[in-house]
Amino acid sequence: MRARRLRASLRGWGGVGVMAVFCVLALAFALLLPAARSHGDGGGAHGGRGVTPGSQARAPEKCSAPEKQTLPPSRADGPTIKAIKERPGEKRKLIVGVDQNSYRWGYRDPNSGGDAELEGFDIDLVRRIAEDILGARDAVQFKAIPTDQRIPAIQDGRVDMVVRTMTINCDRIRDVAFSAPYFRSGQQLLAPKSSTITGYDASLAGKRICTAAGSTAYSTLEADRGTGRLVSSADFSTTVPSQLDCLVRLQLGEVDAVVTDTALAASQAAQDPAVELKGEAFTTEYYGVAMKKDADDLVRRVNRILVDFRADRAGGWQASYDRWLSATLGDDAAKSRPPAPAYLREN
To answer: pLDDT over 90 for what percent of the chain?
Structure first.
């Protein structure tokens, strides 16, 4: 019965929609593997080495401009980076939590054949970080992390960092440390082209909205319900482990709209010609690289790498944007490029 319903619901959505369903099913199985700490990955992400608490260890009581709550850049190797470099043999890799199903951000191209490698904008950045710290772009162990497991994976030491379209916000900087922003985005609605939904407005009355558990989208909807900005009859009770699952729910007709980052919504619209972005982005948000609270040397090093990544016109931020994102977000990268970084003052 379920299979017949799936085939009927996907009729008219095109082959890409079918691909999305099977990608999600495959991903659900794959994510079971990294969920528990493996004895084969060298133990904790920091090799069990202690680090000295730094100025980012405690978030301010009153948080504003969370994208500016990061440490100044430095190339110095501290205890966290030294522990990464001292991993033995084949385990001498940077362990990074990523997505493997976000089109043009972190994904495996099903058309490339064989064991498709991870690729996308976030993956380019990860390889840049690995090259700087360990001297090789391939010195990375990727771990597929669901949206709601990004922070636990960092805190539990399963990964050194997460590079997964992760918005810097006040709640999260109490739990993890962030780099300076590397991308500017915002929340936006995705819905079928035939939908009567026009944007983040009264047209959401009585509509079912899907978000990823633990996402900024969900917390925004929750806050806006409290302030009255979101129409009271909108139903956002449907949450999923990974954001692409919302597109599948939309295709199945189980929800009427998806709320997610503009950058991800645009990629999903490119995958499925039957859906489109509705209205304008209704927030401004910044993506950052997330790391453990006391990994000050790693935060500083990543911030130094980001300075170089933004400045490198040949193979840095702009080149990666042109390759992966211009097709979905447009040729003008200015609206996606974050402002000049601001850092915490040294004591």
So the answer is: 75
Please choose, from the candidates 46, 67, 37, 42, the residue with its C-alpha nearest in 3D space to the C-alpha of residue 294: 46
Task: State residue 52's pLDDT score.
Answer: 34
* Interval 186-226: pLDDT, tens: 999 999 999 999 999 999 999 999 999 999 999 999 999 99
Buried b (16+ CB within 10 A) or exposed e, 187-222: bbbbbbeebebebbeebbeebbbbbbebbbbbebbe
In terms of Cα–Cα distance, which of 180, 167, 269, 254 is closest to 218? 167
> Cα separation of 298 and 160, whole Å?
9
Quick: pLDDT tens for 38-47: 333 333 444 4
pLDDT at 4: 40
* Paired sense of beta strands 208-212 and 257-261, if any: parallel
Coil/strand/helix, residue 242: coil
* β-pairing verdict for 161-162 and 106-108: unpaired
Residue with tokens 């509509």: 207
Q: Which residues contact 315 (CB under 8 A, 6 or more apart)?
A: none
Give the tokens for residue 4.
């017949």
Q: pTM to 2 decimals?
A: 0.82
User: How many beta carbons lie within 10 A of that of residue 227, not counting itself?
Assistant: 7
**Location of structure tokens 């001297």:** 135
| 144: amino acid identity, one letter | A
Confidence at residue 347, expressed as pLDDT on a 0 to 100 scale? 59
DSSP E strand stretches across 179-280: 183-185, 187-192, 208-212, 235-240, 257-261, 275-278
Torsion of Cα atoms, 318 then 214 then 57 then 68, to 10°: 40
Helix (H, G, I), strand (E, B) or coil at 203: helix
For 114: left if phi > 0, alpha if psi spans -120 to 50, otherwise beta; the answer is left
